[in-house]
Q: What sequence folds into this?
């Protein structure tokens, strides 16, 4: 009986029909909207910032590059001036979409602050998804003695043919960068740590 049940579960999980039942159309559309720009780069600007210390973003050229796309993973380097350390990674998990921030040193090694992010907790919309901080990130923020960051939620918005936006919110803090999707720009350098992954 146990063997029969295990076999039934395995067949259901592996069947294409089961994959369709756990897919959320709004998230698939959001994912596809971004993937449609694979291979292109766009310049952005800070449109919201209500805290000090954001000069890194306001005083440098900001470029996002939809660099690598597969059926369940998007890699989007975010270049801030000559700093090529940041890559946003969006992954379909079967229960939503996960956002991670991959930070690397110039040598390509993981930075002390890396792979923090969050996971969707609802269906969201084809043009907007939110990613509240996950447990790994909360523990990492405490390790780095920035407990205020445990309340972080990251948001991404995309309106094809218009703009893509990256936004961070928590109590008392907001940062938003908008990228103009109507004007592709020259591709930026390979992000640190991603050499040989074309």
A:
């Amino acid at each position: 009986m146990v063997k029969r049940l295990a076999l039934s579960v395995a067949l259901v999980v592996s069947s294409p029909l089961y994959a369709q039942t756990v897919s959320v159309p709004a998230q698939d559309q959001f994912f596809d909207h971004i993937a449609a720009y694979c291979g292109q780069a766009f310049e952005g600007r800070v449109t919201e910032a209500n805290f000090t210390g954001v000069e890194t973003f306001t005083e440098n050229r900001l470029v996002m590059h939809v660099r690598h796309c597969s059926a369940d993973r998007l890699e989007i380097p975010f270049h801030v001036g000559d700093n090529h350390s940041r890559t946003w990674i969006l992954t379909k998990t079967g229960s939503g979409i996960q956002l991670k921030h991959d930070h690397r040193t110039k040598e390509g090694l993981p930075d002390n602050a890396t792979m923090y992010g969050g996971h969707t907790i609802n269906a969201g919309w084809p043009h907007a998804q939110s990613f509240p901080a996950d447990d790994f990130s909360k523990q990492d923020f405490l390790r780095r003695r920035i407990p205020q960051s445990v309340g972080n939620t990251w948001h991404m918005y995309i309106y094809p043919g218009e703009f893509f936006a990256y936004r961070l919110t928590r109590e008392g803090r907001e940062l938003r960068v908008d990228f103009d999707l109507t004007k592709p720009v020259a591709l930026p350098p390979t992000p640190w740590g991603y050499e040989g992954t074309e």
Observations:
- The first strand starts at residue 41 and ends at 49.
